[in-house]
Design a protein that fits this description.
The complex is a heterodimer of chains A (215) and B (1004). With 215 residues, chain A is mostly helical. Helix content of chain A is 40%, strand content 1%. Chain A is built from 10 helices and 1 strand; from the N terminus they run ααααααβαααα. In chain A, helix 5 (83-90) crosses helix 6 (101-109). Classes of the chains: A mainly alpha (215), B alpha/beta (1004).
């Protein structure tokens, strides 16, 4: 009797199993990456009403974050600066710059600027800037190296899993208070010991239960 | 399934929530077992096809919205106000005027938006506590039905147009000295308004000024005028009282100064501090009021028979050696059919506590009753000890006697212009005056009110009134404090006028700024002193003490023998008692949804009032709960549903005022029944000769007390079950002195061991709460404060009938003993934050879990709405969002919500969180200060709101904290402690101080 299936079909089950396996792995890996905030959110850099350059102001001129984001040490929100803060300098420096036209218009008309929000956690997550700063978590840990950004983009996924990683093991992110706003900070060699000292002196106990962030 | 646990046979309970509960009717068994009353009506009537359609559409929409991240904007200030840090709250002092009574308040604002009200401890004797009305007034500010512009004969106009109109008319009235001009005001206590009113009378000397208030202390003032020659206000010191007798007076509920009195009085029963001292409270009243929960003995007596009780008491006092004036005794009758034993025992007790006792009569009693009470207080040596009298300052009281003259002037068309400052006289005037008809005879009429109400719509002009949270003003308190009202927000609507502004406009013809007008009143204060007044909220100004002796002859002359010897009401001559609503007040808060849904402290009715009558009376009349009847008094009638109330005097019907508004707004219009329709000038509070028609229909009443019942019978098997029902534990002071730990010993508790793994907490603070049942008066301020703090939705009457009310704190009101002569007990119940929480064990998605500080937390975004947790909760404190209650809220009302708390969506379970947002804020604030958390850093909203400090909350591991100390009290016990759930909220047993002479006879 003639064979129904040619000989090459003998290896077919193995190939199907193999390619099926690869497909599943690709699918899982694909979903893992492409559906995660690392892909969907990180890198979000919308166009802002004013092409404000953090690279220029922070990186080159050396402005401290807290010059503009005043409330960050005492309030849950970091506060985007009022138009007045811009005008403190820009009435004298580059008062005619075209790029600053929306700022001048806002100041003259008393209408606020509408900045596009980049760093966003869901409404039911109550992140508190002041608590994190007080604990020694630098701005950079969540916002990335702002001083190098011409246009600010989202550097970290700000997802719950990502938050919890640090809450479970914050050692690499605990800085001395004077280095809170420093960009490009590298943990020293004895960071574990330093982190332990910060944790014990401030009685740090990062919450890992729901009520820490959700209300 | 049905009979797996043995069901106890019908038995009478000692403590019962309702008759159904006491008799354990099959209806109640269904209710308590199924938790929810009916099938969800919204699930009915949706067929498969439309369900699939809706689901398909939702899926498509969900898919579309998730495609792209929505663009969100940050809108910073252009120029940041100096004090405002976005994200942090600021608190400002202000005062809420409410007739002649005011409350000193602290208002929490975020970025210039007020959202939470509390008492101002710097300016108020009750600390951070405030009444339900004050707490709910934040919702009144954001009421979408407030009028946004003036109306002239129903057409849109402006306040500016009215000012122009008035300027011309004013010239005429100045020329004729105000002939034909009438000013009808609300009552008030305010230096600025008093100053302007004086200016008004000097500008228009012939103008008529009348003050009307639906419910006022007029009779008390008249009584004191009889006794002392001038209308003095009584300023009580309840802290010094050992024996209190209240006659038809809801002293801890709706009477003047109730909260201050309650706090002072409960200090006199802090038995853990001093077991020797405990005050005693006798209450004589016609129907149960909130104060009954505090009473040690209660006499059920018709309100019209209170004078007779007083007459008998005066005789008994004289018999016990009290120097009751002879002329008074000569005039007072000797009523026969009063409860002689009760009165004699009370008289003996009062006589034994001269100078440390107090008699108080309610505002509904006749002036002569108040005169006699003042004379008896004097005879008992209480004047200057427990009561002092002060001359009211800057105060304009209701002026009922002037109303007939006003009506005559109106009917004779002598009124060219009627100016009405606030109030809603068309709704609240006694029916026999027929004010609505007479109003049309006025040449023109002007009414200033928050919304277009019954009066506004009948007037030529309506002026939109500024809410107190957006205007300047001031208030005067009876104890000598003067308070300030400062705006918390710029006026929400462009058009509007503040009270001071309007009165000033009427006097001067110019529209000045209200801030300037108020500051002018206080011009004697330097700018620094003014600023500190704005910071503190009030300043004390000593008022000269008045220690008058009553003119006994005048008091005796005022006593009408007939009035003091009235017969008991009967079927043909029934009594109707009109009371101020503890929720919607005189009707002014009818459009406030929080207050409409707030259960009445005693009846536990929501969204309605009813004709409250005793069971015997209802049965004699052939009526049952919910029957609609017509109540007829003095030739007028009003429909009213019947509600049988334990403890109600026979043939005495209590009706609450303030319901049945026609033009209140989208919430309050058509809710309840208008009792003003049968109220007359001659009988504003107690009417006799009432009749009740046969029933002509039925009306569903939404009573919440049988909802969320504790199913104690099926909670456990024998052995445990016998111990479970001791929900509310109490003892007498004698029992307490003998065995302070009596509450623990009420049941024998074997060693309890848990089958669950214990939590490991580490060194975090451990939150706990203690509720002192000996101090709780059941007012419900905690419920509303919690609603405001935690964005708790309102569900509406239909959903309340389905058992779906959302309040996180319910106050269980128990009756004790006999239906006719019941005792009343109250017990606030919210989530107990059990350490071995049964809800956590059954949640399939771990949406309710335990945190490291002992909180039983609810993660809304995980919740899939199985309701297993609620089913497994023995305390029945979990609340489920059956519908999206907040989705349809008008935009403006969202401003009343707390930005620190998530707004919950349909399908999500919620419950008390111990104000976790405040805990987090408190912990972070302490961290920022670089210090450890200390007791008092975190206060829950309910704890703050409690007028008697019955609730303590804090870290139970901190030995010095108030809550740890409270839990060490021998009176400490856990509700359903036998279940070994180890609740973090525990109770302190109630202590009563019965009079041994009465205890056997009539335990309460």
């Amino acid at each position: 009797m003639a064979q129904i299936f040619p000989k090459w079909t003998n290896s077919l089950p193995g190939k199907i199993a193999l390619s099926g396996g690869i497909l599943v792995i690709l699918l899982v890996a694909g979903i893992w990456y492409y559906w995660s905030p690392w892909f969907t959110d990180v890198g979000y850099a919308p166009q802002q009403p004013v092409p404000y350059s953090h690279k220029l102001h922070v990186g080159e001129l050396g402005l401290d974050c807290r010059y503009c984001h005043v409330g960050v040490e005492v309030s849950p929100v970091a506060m985007v600066p009022p138009t007045q803060t811009c005008m403190n300098c820009h009435t004298l420096i580059k008062p005619e710059s075209e790029k600053l036209a929306p700022v001048r218009e806002s100041w003259e008309k008393g209408t606020p600027l509408h900045w596009v929000r980049i760093h966003k956690v869901p409404d039911y997550a109550y992140f508190d800037h002041s608590a994190h700063l007080r604990a020694g978590v630098g701005c950079e840990s969540c916002h990335g190296d702002i001083a190098a950004m011409e246009v600010v983009s989202l550097d970290k996924p700000l997802s719950m899993g990502w938050c919890l990683e640090c809450h479970r093991n914050p050692d690499q992110h605990l800085r001395p208070q004077e280095a809170i706003t420093v960009m490009g900070w590298q943990p020293p060699d004895d960071q574990p010991a330093r982190a332990a000292a910060i944790k014990s002196s401030l009685k740090l106990n990062p919450p890992e239960t729901c009520s820490g962030c959700h209300r | 399934m049905k009979n797996r646990l043995p069901v106890a046979t019908s038995h009478k309970k000692e403590y019962w929530l309702s008759r159904r509960d006491r008799d354990n009717t099959p209806e109640y068994q269904v209710l308590v077992r199924n938790e929810f009353v009916t099938e969800p009506p919204d699930a009915r009537g949706i067929d498969r096809r439309s369900f699939l359609g809706i689901m398909g559409a939702s899926m498509a929409l969900a898919g579309l919205t998730s495609c792209r991240r929505p663009e969100d904007h940050i809108v910073p200030y252009v120029s940041r106000p100096e004090d405002i840090t976005p994200g942090n709250s600021l608190h400002y002092a202000t005062s809420m005027p409410l007739g002649t009574e005011s409350e000193a308040l602290l208002v929490e604002t975020r970025e210039g938006r007020p959202f939470k009200i509390m008492g101002n401890a710097l300016a108020s004797p009750i600390g951070n506590s405030a009444s339900v009305w004050a707490h709910a007034s934040i919702l009144g500010l954001y009421d979408p039905d407030r009028s946004m512009h003036a109306l002239r004969t129903g057409e849109a106009s402006t306040v500016g147009a009215f000012a122009d109109f008035w300027k011309i008319r004013r010239e005429e009235f100045v020329k004729n000295a105000g002939e034909g001009l009438v000013l009808l005001t609300e009552s008030f206590a305010s230096p600025t308004l008093s100053r302007l009113l004086e200016l008004f009378t000097t500008t228009f000397p012939k103008a008529m000024v009348v003050t009307h208030e639906a419910v006022s202390d007029r009779a008390i003032l008249d009584g004191h005028a009889l006794a002392f020659g001038t209308p003095l206000v009584a300023d009580y010191d309840f802290g010094a009282v050992d024996v209190l007798l209240a006659l038809d007076a809801d002293v801890f509920g709706t009477e003047r100064g109730a909260f201050e009195h309650a706090r002072a009085f409960t200090r006199g029963r802090a038995v853990d501090e001093d077991a020797k001292r405990m005050n005693r409270f006798y209450l004589a009243e016609s129907g149960l009021t909130q104060s009954a929960a505090m009473a040690d003995h209660r006499l059920r007596v018709a309100a019209s028979r209170i004078p007779a009780v007083l007459a008998a008491l005066a005789r008994e006092l004289a018999a016990n050696g009290v120097a009751v004036p002879g002329e008074l005794l000569g005039k007072l009758p000797a009523p026969k059919d009063v409860d002689a034993a009760w009165i004699s025992a009370v008289a003996k007790d009062l006589a034994a506590h001269r100078g440390r006792s107090l008699l108080v009569a309610g505002r509904g009693q006749h002036a002569s009753v108040h005169a006699v009470v003042a004379a008896l207080n004097h005879a008992l040596g209480n004047t200057g000890a427990t009561v002092r009298y002060v001359a009211p300052r800057h105060t304009r009281f209701a002026d009922d006697a002037a109303l007939p003259a006003l009506m005559t002037a109106l009917k004779e068309s002598k009124v060219q212009m009627l100016l009405m400052l606030g109030g809603n006289p068309v709704f609240t005037m006694p029916a026999d005056l027929e004010f609505r008809t007479a109003l049309e005879s006025a040449g023109s009429s002007v009414h200033c009110s928050l919304a277009v109400d019954e009066t506004s719509s009948a007037c030529t002009w309506h002026l939109p009134r500024r809410h107190y949270l957006e205007s300047w003003g001031d208030v005067s308190f009876a104890d000598g404090r003067l308070g300030v009202i400062q705006p918390l927000i710029a006026p929400l609507f462009d058009d509007g006028i503040a009270d001071a502004q309007l009165l000033s406009l009427l006097c001067t013809g110019t529209l000045d700024k209200d801030g300037d007008i108020v500051r002018a009143t206080w011009k004697a204060l330097s700018d620094d002193a003014w600023r500190s007044l704005l910071h503190d909220g009030s300043r004390m100004e000593d008022i000269p003490p008045v220690a008058p002796a009553p003119n006994n002859a005048a008091v005796a002359a005022a006593v009408e023998t007939k009035h003091f010897n009235q017969s008991a009401p009967s079927r043909g001559d029934m009594e109707v008692v009109f009371r101020l609503s503890p929720t919607v007040h005189d009707g002014r808060f009818a459009n406030n949804a929080w207050l409409q849904e707030f259960p009445d402290p005693v009846t536990k009715l929501t969204w309605d009032n009813a004709a409250l009558m005793s069971r015997a009376t209802a049965e004699a009349l052939g009526l049952k709960d919910g029957d609609l009847v017509r109540i007829k008094v003095g030739g007028r009638e009003t429909p009213m549903p019947v509600w049988m109330m334990p403890g109600q005097a026979e043939y005495s019907i209590t009706v609450l005022l303030g319901y049945g508004r026609r033009k209140a707004g989208r919430v309050g219009s058509g809710v309840g029944f208008n009792a003003y329709r049968i109220r007359g000038t001659k009988y504003p509070y107690v009417a006799r000769g009432a009749r009740v028609s046969p029933p002509f229909g039925t009306h569903a009443l939404a009573c919440v007390q049988d909802h969320h019942g504790l199913d104690t019978e099926r909670m456990a098997r024998e052995g445990v079950r016998e111990r479970v029902p001791m929900l509310l534990r109490e003892g007498t002071i004698e029992e307490y002195r003998k065995d302070p730990h009596f509450a623990e010993h009420i049941v024998h508790m074997p060693q309890l061991r848990s089958m669950w793994k214990e939590h490991e907490y580490g060194d975090n603070p451990q939150w706990g709460m203690s509720i002192d049942l000996n101090a709780c008066i059941g007012c419900g301020a905690c419920t509303i404060a919690c609603q405001s703090e935690n964005n708790i939705p309102v569900v509406g009457k239909e959903q309340v009938l389905n058992g779906r009310e959302m309040h996180w704190i319910r106050i269980d009101r128990y009756y004790k003993g006999d239906e006719d002569e019941p005792g009343v007990r109250v017990m606030p119940v919210a989530c107990h934050h059990c350490e071995m929480a049964p809800c956590e064990q059954v949640c399939p998605v771990a949406a309710t879990t335990h945190d490291e500080e002992g909180l039983n937390v609810m993660t809304y975004n995980r919740c899939i709405g199985t309701r297993y947790c609620s089913n497994n909760c023995p305390y029945k404190v979990r609340r489920f969002n059956f519908l999206n209650y907040t989705g349809k809220l008008p935009e403006i009302m969202k401003s009343a919500q707390n930005p620190d708390v998530s707004v919950r969506f349909r399908g999500v379970m919620e419950k008390c969180t111990y104000c976790t947002q405040r805990i987090e804020r408190g912990k972070i604030a302490a961290k920022l200060d670089g210090r450890a958390l200390k007791d008092g850093d975190v206060q829950s909203a309910c704890q703050q709101a409690c007028p008697t400090q019955a609730i303590s909350f804090g870290d139970i591991l901190d030995r010095g904290s108030a809550v740890a100390k409270a839990k060490e009290s021998p009176r400490n016990y856990a509700l359903l402690g036998e279940l070994n759930l180890r609740p973090r909220t525990t109770f302190l047993a109630k202590i009563r101080n019965p009079n041994p002479a009465l205890e056997d006879k009539r335990p309460v």
